[in-house]
Amino acid sequence: MKDGKKKLNGCDTIYKQIDHIALAVYDIEQAAELFTNAFQLDIVMDLSFPPDGVHTNLVFSLGPQNELELMAPRGEKGFLIDFLKKHGEGFHHLALEVADIDQTTHHLEEKGVRIFGKTMHKGMRFTFLHPSSTLRVGMQLVQRKPQKPAHNPMIKRLNHVAIGINSLEKGRDFFLRKLGAKRIKSDRDSRFDCSYDRFVVGNARFDLLYDFQNNSSEGVPKGIHHLALEVGNLSESIRQLKHFGIEPLDRLSDSKSIFLHPNKMYGCLWELSQF
Fold it and tell me: Which domain holds residue 209?
């Protein structure tokens, strides 16, 4: 025991699941129209954060355990407008739900992970992990009260997040040593002509993609490579998306899963699969 903190052993005692994926957009009404109509997502939270109105957030259900957050700036100043000017629309951060945010941050700081931006809002506690410690991927920790599961007619859940990395050593160090994740598989992914390691962190799954033979990642920014969602009926999902002008990427899609181009999905490559 150190500084009165209880020692935590193993990621299963620390992390629950991926709480949400956050996308930064310029026009939140336009983005909301895409996800409510084409993906049939329900809005579960509408808020401005922080209270002074620097940006607006809309939160959508991705099934009983995961959410999608849209973030849009209000005005021409603030961290989010700076982010959009530098990176464009797309992935901003992913959040891991934890049981005890104080113990988890203490555990990570002992492992050398930089922590910043601790705050509280609407009964939820948040803190960010610095991208220099997290493979250049924006990550957040969330501790929240239990909430009523939401039903979505199309999306069942977030299956996994795939991260592209240049250094396998650094990737494994972050997941195995710092997060305490379990590596459950290493293999080749012929779709992207790369290798991958699969990790579980609590109930969350991550694929680390590396050794790209064609040095291509479908135009997706470094860090997050793609988001994989599980659907109830893939054929119906394809028909629904085509109705709204969203066509699967033929080169990557097959009978088991489809990919949606980042140009249609606010800078992110999306995978939809039926398991």
Answer: 155-273
- 184 and 104 within one domain: no
C-alpha–C-alpha distance, residues 217 and 192, integer Å: 7
Is residue 2 in a domain?
no
User: What is the total count of domains within the chain?
Assistant: 2
Cα angle 84, 179, 163; round to 5: 45
The alpha-carbon radius of gyration of the chain (Å, integer) is: 18
Mean pLDDT of 92-106: 95
Alpha-carbon distance of 208 to 187, in angstroms, equals 11
- Over residues 123-152, the pLDDT tens digits come to 889 999 999 999 999 999 999 877 666 677
Tell me the two tokens of residue 228.
């994989």
- Residue 201 CB burial class (10 angstroms; 0-12, 13-18, ≥19): buried
Rounded CA separation 84/73 (Å): 9
Residue 134's CB is within 10 A of a number of other CB atoms, namely 22
Single-letter residue type at 175 = F
A 10 A CB-CB count for 163 gives: 26
**Span between the terminal Cα atoms of the chain, in Å:** 43
pTM of the model: 0.89
pLDDT in tens, 175-184: 999 999 999 9
Distance, CA of 169 to CA of 167 (rounded, Å): 5
